[in-house]
Amino acid sequence: MFTGIVQRGVLSSARRRKGVLGLKISSRSVARDLRVGDSVALNGVCLTARKVGRRSFHVEATNETVTRSTLAGLRAGQAVNLELPLRLNDRLGGHIVQGHVDRTASLAGAISDGASRRMWFEVDPELSRYLIPKGSVAVDGVSLTIVETEGSSFEVMLIPHTLQATTLGQLESGDIVNVEVDMMAKYAERLMSARSERGGNGAF
């Protein structure tokens, strides 16, 4: 489990073999606290460390993960967002992120707003019901607050720190990102659906 408060690393190499995508990521700070078998989020995708060195680590992604995310499009030298799992005594600085990408979305547009930047993303219409103004969403693993929604698009505001500390400041119109909606919204929908199936009576 993660919080969407990320740090940047660099993809050193990507290699596909026997249906598995192997990725090597350079990040001394992340590798220092990582052990083989630990979870780590890469652009919002929860993966398992297969090999860990002093300055880098290796992870692997299956076809299912690759199909649902942007991992297949990563290239050597590209910056990526990284996050280690939440510890029980850590602060929950963002929101609860599972690292299970729901869909990808495209950047529909962006404009500067002082030192900040407004961005609009177009997402699968099936996910739009989970997005609400002032709600949370993870974009490439970064916890963001939704400013506004309209149809199947949502708007976020990126402050200067987020633009500098993550890869989101490098996005251009048409770029594809990983999106994970707030799991609390999905649980709420499931509970309401279960109650409706029982005729609206009884406790959840």
Description:
By secondary structure, the chain is an alpha+beta fold. It contains four helices and twelve strands; from the N terminus they run ββαβββαββββββαβα. Helix content is 16%, strand content 41%. The strands form two sheets. A six-stranded antiparallel beta barrel has the order 1-2-5-4-3-6. A six-stranded antiparallel barrel has the order 7-8-11-10-9-12. The longest helix has 15 residues.
Note the run of SSEs as H and E: EEHEEEHEEEEEEHEH
What is the β-strand count?
Answer: 12
Shape: globular
CATH architecture assignment of the largest domain: Beta Barrel
Q: What is the CATH topology assignment of the largest domain?
A: Elongation Factor Tu (Ef-tu), domain 3
Distance between the termini: 25 Å
Q: How large, in whole angstroms, is the Cα Rg?
A: 18 Å
Relative helix content: 10-25%
Number of domains: 2
Q: Outline the biggest β-sheet.
A: 6 strands, antiparallel, barrel
Provide the residue-averaged pLDDT: 93
Trace the largest sheet across and list its strands.
Answer: 1-2-5-4-3-6
Which structural category fits the helices and strands? alpha+beta
What's the oligomerization state? single chain
Number of helices: 4
CATH class value of the largest domain: Mainly Beta
In terms of DSSP E residues, the strand content is: 35-45%
